[in-house]
Amino acid sequence: MNLERVDLNLLTYLDVLLREKNVTRAAEQLGVTQPAMSNILRRLRTLFNDPLLIRSSEGMTPTERALELQPSIREVLSDLSQILEPRTEFRPLSSNRVFRIMASDYAEATLIPALVKAMRSEAPNVVLDFLTPSDVSYRDMEQGKVDMAINRFNEIPQSFHQVLVWQDSFSCLLHRDSDMIDHFNLKSYLEAQHIWVSKTGMGVGFGVNPEKSGGLGWIDQALARIGKKRKISIFTRHYQMPALLAANADLIATLPTRVARLQAQNLRLVIKEPPFYIPEFELKMAWCPLLHHHPAHRWLRQLILFVARQLIEEERRQEDKAIIHSHMSARYED
To answer: In which family does this protein belong, per the annotation (predicted)?
Structure first.
């Protein structure tokens, strides 16, 4: 193929067509007429010698060749954007940029407070707009409308960049006066009533079905692996709820450990290790290729990872202090 004869704008058109899977919507996105978009699709089919999009009962379905092309096209367009974009240094102290970040309730409870504190020092005029998973779709991120997502991802578009923020385990939160405090084991755990709290993924969420424990998340999947099932009486999507609900002595909330530690600042609540194995999960930061090379975006990603490392180091210092205090107390009692 003679590259001199290829219109590189066609790659942009193909990117939008594959994202929208609809000629009319793609035309609206690109500001061209529907007949012009249809003509562009014909040119693309000729260029790649493939139908690319085929009409089906669900609209336009990408061919296998189109799905293979999509991540490569996103990468090429990102590289072109980097080449053509003026190289300007990002100055956080003087910037008034708005960063839009999709953050799960877990991330908002554990990471975001420290990020905001660092941001007020590093970039006092920058505006942070935090969105929930229900506010955002992957399409919004692909179009650069949202800078990044910080969440636990079950799946993510292949073209997206992602990096691990940290890993976390699970802990149980109980009322201090609970009958289970002195005999907290698998039997008492299964006999108790539980609070379910979770919201992962993107888009609008719907009610859960208590009978389908396999679809309720990590905790219930871990129980299913040992042939057990817990009794869930409360379903919530907010990590601030368990502290209020666990004030009832007959309830247990099984939460990410970092959230449980925050909630356990309430002196009525006690943390216990789960009486069965629950695998750790990963909190990740993800963003689309279009923003990957942007100086301001790079700065924000680096700041988030720096803040996360500081929080992890502080946790380790606190754990070391607790161990030393425990040893000293034991020696004093001896």
So the answer is: Belongs to the LysR transcriptional regulatory family.
